[in-house]
Amino acid sequence: MGSYPPPPGNDAVSGTHRATSPNTDDDTGSGDEPLATPGKPRRRVGVVVAISLLSAALIGLGVGLTFTFLDLQRAVALIEEQQQELEEQRELIDQKETFSQAATEMMAAAAVFDGLPFSTLVDRRYHETLIERGWTHRWNATVLRHDIDDVRAETAVLAELAAEAATEGASNASGTYYEEITDQLGRGFVTTALDAAPCGQEAWGCVSGDDPFTVYYDHAGTVDEPYMTDWIRAGVAYHEYAHVLQFMNPKQTDAALESFNDNVEHMADCYALTFLEGWTLDHRVWVGSYTYWDISVGYGYVCDSGQRQVIRDWVASLTYDHQPIAQ
Questions:
Q1: Rounded Cα gap, residues 155 and 122, in angstroms
Q2: Where are the domains of the chain?
Q3: Of 27, 164, 232, 308, which has the most beta carbons under 10 Å away?
Q4: Greatest CA separation found in the chain?
Q5: 204 or 138, which is more confident?
Q6: H-helix or E-strand containing 208?
Q7: H or E stretch covering 66
């Protein structure tokens, strides 16, 4: 069928409605639904929501970055702290190894004195204390460094003593028999001085408590005497060396002196009689076919076998017996 124009006065056909212009007074139509009410334009709700969500996302991202930065700072601080601890542990390990090496060197320096009758030269108790301190301070690198310095200082003292003794024992600076015998007995630790001034007029030799490692001999007063022989000089040297031992070991000497009524000269004579084989206190020195000198050396007391055993025991008690010290 063909289409026809709508009847006059009607704006819609077949149940549909056409909204009139906002300026049209005719608000009615032939449909069932009311016409849309004119007013303000509608907001773009979707755009606003999107912007809000984006802002929230950016804020959340900022907070997340802040926490991440703080976590990173904490991680860096923790790494630095751990690195510091590692460095301190490495230093501590190094100091322990250094202390162990220093202690080993000190004990090696002390071993040079093994067998010498100068136990007071090596203070074993002090060495034990030094090593004990190293063990006590093994977790404190700063204090351990001071312990290492003390150990090295003691090593230097022992090394210097040994070096001086080696030099002294290797030479006879005075060229005298006195010094030759004294070096043999003292292994270089006891020196010889050809000076009778500290001894007085009647003594051929002496030892001073102010300098117990030096033996003074009246060489000038006896060198031209016809009765003075190297055998007598040897006996004098043994007697004076006994005084060195007495001064250097007072505790052990006090115990031994009880057998000699506290007479240090009788004890020194007994030392010479015990260790210089064939020695006597009285000598006849022939200076010609019919001429001789009768010489008495010492203080006129000949010790018995019991006292000589006391001397042997005394000397044995003076010997430095080197033993390792556990670290």
A1: 11
A2: 45-168, 176-318
A3: 232
A4: 193
A5: 204
A6: strand 205-208
A7: helix 45-111
Residue with tokens 């510091």: 84
Tokens of 294: 């009768």
Q: Is the pTM of this model over 0.85?
A: no
The helix-helix angle for 305-318 and 264-275 (nearest 10°) equals 90
Mean pLDDT of all residues in 88-98: 72
Q: What pLDDT sits at residue 214?
A: 94
Of 216, 210, 265, 208, whose CA–CA distance to 237 is shortest? 216
Cβ neighbourhood burial of 274 (10 Å; 0-12, 13-18, 19+): buried
Q: What is the pLDDT of residue 203?
A: 87
Structure tokens at 283: 């000598």
Q: Percentage helix, strand, coil, to 5, in the chain?
A: 55, 5, 35
What is the per-residue DSSP string for 116-144?
A: -S-GGGS-HHHHHHHHHHHHHTTT-HHHH
